[in-house]
């Protein structure tokens, strides 16, 4: 069964750092594009970052320079290192497997999400 | 970056057909994908590509596209279809070719 399980969320003070993990099963993380998507309380979905199978990484402007996406192939796990956290980073963070072809782009499956709360 | 626009809320009578739309320039180049999200749960992919349903998604869900508008149609809406629906597409605005955009979401109420 293809599955993603996120961990690492919690309460953190503004300016602090947190690392989220996303453990995959049923497929190989390093052979796929993998993304982080977040959802602030009561708000919509916001794409955060992607890592390509080749290792290239891309970020939304809102997190560029503060967040770093990476993976550990031996653990089949995706990570999101979040530094200089701000109140507006408060959200449920989902990891997802990316799919694409010439016609479009989609995410499936999604993890259950992990809540990050940035507050003093 | 480009944007995708959705109506904030739509309602449908039980058993009737409803169309949820998504508008954006990137949809002239790429098909939209659609996700269903129920309260407290992660999004679930319901439509991708031209009109493809993942395994386990009922065939009452279908997708279509015309110009800069993509549509998700639920034919014979059921009570369990009440949820938020989001579209997404690949950004085609140039500097963010590798970014992905989401619509703001549509809250579907089944009456």
Overview of the molecule:
The complex is a heterodimer of chains A (120) and B (111). By secondary structure, chain A is an all-beta fold. Chain A has strands at residues 3-7, 10-12, 18-25, 34-39, 45-51, 57-59, 67-72, 77-82, 91-101, 104-110, 114-118. Chain A contains no helices and eleven strands. Chain B has no helices and ten strands. Chain B has strands at residues 5-6, 9-12, 18-23, 33-37, 44-47, 61-66, 69-74, 83-90, 100-102, 106-110. In chain B, a hairpin with a 6-residue loop joins strand 4 and strand 5. Chain B is globular and about 40 Å long. Chain A binds chain B through residues 35, 37, 44-47, 50, 56, 58, 60-61, 94, 99-101, 103-113, and chain B through 1, 30-33, 35, 42-45, 48-50, 54, 86, 88-90, 98-105.
What keyword list fits this structure?
heterodimer, A: 120 residues, mainly beta, seven-stranded mixed beta sheet, four-stranded antiparallel beta sheet, 56% strand, globular, B: 111 residues, six-stranded mixed beta sheet
Question: Topology of this protein?
Answer:
The complex is a heterodimer of chains A (120) and B (111).
Chain A: E1 3-7, E2 10-12, E3 18-25, E4 34-39, E5 45-51, E6 57-59, E7 67-72, E8 77-82, E9 91-101, E10 104-110, E11 114-118
Parallel strand pairs in A: 2-11
Antiparallel strand pairs in A: 1-3, 3-8, 4-5, 4-9, 5-6, 7-8, 9-10, 9-11
Chain B: E1 5-6, E2 9-12, E3 18-23, E4 33-37, E5 44-47, E6 61-66, E7 69-74, E8 83-90, E9 100-102, E10 106-110
Parallel strand pairs in B: 2-10
Antiparallel strand pairs in B: 1-3, 3-7, 4-5, 4-8, 6-7, 8-9, 8-10
What is the straight-line distance between the termini of chain A? 40 Å
Sheet-strand content of chain B, in percent, reads 35-45%
Main beta sheet strand tally, sense and closure of chain B:
6 strands, mixed
What is the typical, i.e. mean, pLDDT of chain A?
96
| Shape designation of chain A | globular
Largest sheet of chain A: 7 strands, mixed
Radius of gyration of chain A: 14 Å
Number of strands of chain B: 10
What integer is the average pLDDT of chain B? 93
N-to-C SSE string of chain A, H for helix and E for strand: EEEEEEEEEEE
Q: What oligomeric arrangement do these chains adopt?
A: heterodimer
Count the E strands of chain A: 11
Spans of at least 5 consecutive residues with low confidence of chain B: none
Based on secondary structure, the structural category of chain A is: mainly beta
Kindly estimate the percentage of residues of chain A that lie in beta strands according to DSSP: over 45%
Distance between the termini of chain B: 36 Å
Largest chain interface and its two residue counts? Answer: A-B, 26 and 26 residues
- What class do helices, strands and sheet pairing of chain B give? mainly beta
User: Helical proportion of chain A?
Assistant: under 10%
SS element count, helices of chain B: 0
Give the low-confidence spans of chain A.
Answer: none
């Amino acid at each position: 069964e293809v599955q993603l399980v996120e961990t690492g969320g919690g309460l953190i003070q503004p300016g602090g750092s947190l690392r989220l993990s996303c453990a995959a099963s049923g497929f190989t993380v390093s052979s796929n594009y993998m993304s982080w998507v977040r959802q602030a309380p009561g708000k919509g979905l916001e794409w955060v970052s992607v890592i390509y199978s080749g290792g290239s990484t891309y970020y939304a402007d809102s997190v560029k320079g503060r967040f770093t996406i990476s993976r550990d192939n031996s653990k089949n796990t995706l990570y999101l290192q979040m530094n200089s956290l701000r109140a507006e980073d408060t959200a449920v963070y989902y990891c997802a497997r990316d799919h694409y072809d010439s016609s479009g782009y989609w995410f499936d499956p999604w993890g259950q999400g992990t809540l990050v709360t940035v507050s003093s | 970056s480009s944007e995708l626009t959705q109506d904030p809320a739509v309602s449908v009578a039980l058993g009737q057909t409803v169309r949820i739309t998504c508008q954006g320039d990137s949809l002239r180049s790429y098909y939209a994908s659609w996700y269903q999200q129920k309260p407290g749960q992660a999004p679930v992919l319901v439509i991708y590509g031209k009109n493809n349903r993942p395994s386990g998604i009922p065939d009452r869900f279908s997708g279509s596209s015309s110009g800069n508008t993509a549509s998700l149609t639920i034919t014979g809406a059921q009570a369990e279809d009440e949820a938020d629906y989001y579209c997404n597409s690949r950004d085609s605005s140039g500097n963010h070719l590798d970014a992905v955009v989401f619509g703001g979401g549509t809250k579907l109420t089944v009456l």
